[in-house]
Specification:
By secondary structure, this protein is an alpha+beta fold. Helix content is 41%, strand content 18%. Helix 1 packs antiparallel against helix 3 (49-92), helix 4 (143-163) packs antiparallel against helix 5 and helix 7 (292-301) runs antiparallel to helix 8.
């Protein structure tokens, strides 16, 4: 087996190698000390005007050069850190494909944290043997702890969506991933108590989650844990009548039975808009909530509406309403049924499109 040995680095294009930053800093520091000593040893009154002006100019020049060098180095480090953070965020909350198993998709997020494109919201869509499965969720809080929960839930969903035959199994996998994350955080923050006690993160942490399964015939199955129901766009905007959701993940255990609800049938050409509560709770300077349904209605009237156009339009209107910055993370996922029309019996289409969601049995 051949092995590659790393040789000395080559100079690109024959250019001279740049001095290390430490050497440049030492040289600039010595020059600054030399100029300062000369200024102190040769005051202006004794050396004359010209030498005094020369030393003052040299002193100022040394200060400016040193400050400029430090500033350029800090800017380079900041740009590099932003590039690394952006790459990590895109891996965590990766862009959705434009098309997935006959569905057109688009997604977007507005983060409440400055300089961040990922916050406490999560979304993902994968094509499985049972249909396209979509998740959208909202983690309580912001910052690094919320991002850690997002990473745990997304990793669990990407595996469970393919492994579990029922949506209930996917939801239980998400709950276990959340509980593991909370236990690990509790042990790190409270090692003396072993992660137990009322002050641990698991005592007050929760996540709202909406799971959807869109089958080939457009039938939409859902499991909702405290999350806003989506809106359907078909000339007008109407919220899916999903009934009473389950409690958010975290504070309470899931019920023994988790039957998925058959909520609606997404007909060809119709759009489904999933969102987090930050889209409805955003306020303007007068304290007025963002009129999400009204904005979606105007978007739906502008036919043909594409998922990307809906995301861009809602984000633009929301930022205008909130004065340019949101106070809570906002995630949007829009999908459109571009599949060919399925043969249906007379009257079945209207009934299936408006069929109410049955209430799940609880124990």
């Amino acid at each position: 087996m051949n092995t590659l040995k790393a040789g000395p680095p080559r100079r690109a294009g024959g250019r001279a190698r740049r001095l290390p930053r430490s050497v440049v800093a030492v040289l600039l520091g010595l020059w600054l000390v030399l100029v300062t000593c000369w200024e102190l040893a040769c005051p202006l009154s004794d050396a004359g005007v010209v030498p005094g002006l020369a030393t003052c100019t040299g002193f100022l020049l040394a200060v400016l050069v040193l400050a400029g060098w430090l500033r350029s180095g800090l800017l380079r480090e900041l740009r590099r850190a932003k590039e690394v953070a952006r790459a990590a965020q895109e891996v965590l909350l990766r862009p959705l494909p434009a098309r997935l198993d006959g569905l057109a998709l688009a997604a977007g997020q507005l983060s409440a944290s400055r300089g961040a494109s990922v916050g406490g919201d999560l979304y993902e869509a994968v094509a499985t043997e049972d249909g396209v499965r979509v998740v959208i969720g909202d983690v309580r809080g912001h910052g690094l702890p919320a991002i850690a929960v997002v990473a745990a839930l997304l990793g669990s969903f990407r595996e469970a969506a393919h492994d579990e035959s029922e949506l209930g199994g996917v939801l239980r996998r998400l709950e276990r991933a959340l509980q593991r994350n909370l236990r690990e955080r509790a042990r790190d923050e409270h090692p003396a108590s072993g992660g137990a006690g009322p002050d641990t993160p698991s005592a007050e942490e929760f996540v709202t989650v909406l799971l959807l399964e869109i089958r080939q015939d457009g039938e939409v199955l859902a499991l909702n844990c405290g999350h806003p129901w989506p809106h359907r766009l078909s000339g007008t905007a109407e919220q899916v009548a999903g009934g009473e959701p389950l409690p958010p993940l975290g504070p309470f255990p899931l019920p023994v039975e988790l039957p998925a609800r058959r909520c609606m049938r997404l007909l060809p050409g119709e759009l489904l808009v999933l969102h987090t509560d930050g889209a409805e709770d955003a306020r303007n300077a007068h304290g007025e909530f963002f009129p999400l349904r009204e904005v979606l209605g105007r978007t739906a009237a502008a036919r043909p509406a594409s998922p990307a156009a809906v995301v861009e339009g809602v984000q633009r209107e929301l930022l205008r309403h909130a004065g340019g910055r949101v106070r809570d993370d906002v995630a949007l996922v829009v999908l459109r049924n571009d599949r060919l029309r399925m043969p249906v019996q007379p009257g079945e289409q209207a009934v299936a499109a408006r069929r109410p969601c049955p209430e799940p049995s609880r124990r």
